[in-house]
Amino acid sequence: RHAEYQLSQDPAFIAMRETAARFELPETKVVPLYEIDQVTREERARILNDSSLTPEEQSAQLGAVEQQRLDSIRQLVGEAAFRRLQTGVPP
After folding, report:
1. Which parts of 23-78 fold into alpha helices (H)?
2. Count of CB atoms within 10 A of residue 52's CB?
3. Who is most buried in 8, 12, 20, 60, counting CB within 10 A?
């Protein structure tokens, strides 16, 4: 219950829920989508704060993280919904 309450107060979660509703995604997809975004944000921050990486290495790793994020979303919601999310055009 406490975790649900915390999520309900998180602006990023609220935005994700609104996006899911706008694109007619099942409510069951909201938490996994939110978790994908959270993990992605954390990984981006880790890469950007790693002073041992060259700018080229950072760029390559950031690109890989973004591709992994997109692949995870595609797998979670399916190809048709993924394409709608990518184009920003709800059904």
Report:
1. 30-48, 55-77
2. 5
3. 20
CA distance 37 to 45: 12
| Rounded distance between C-alpha atoms, residue 11 and residue 78, angstroms | 25
Q: Quick check: 47 and 61 in contact, CB under 8 A?
A: yes
Model confidence at 2: pLDDT above 90: no
What count of other Cβ atoms lies within 10 Å of the Cβ of residue 81?
Answer: 19
Output the pTM of the full model.
0.87
How far apart, in whole angstroms, are the C-alpha atoms of residue 11 and residue 77?
22
Extents of the domains making up the chain: 2-87
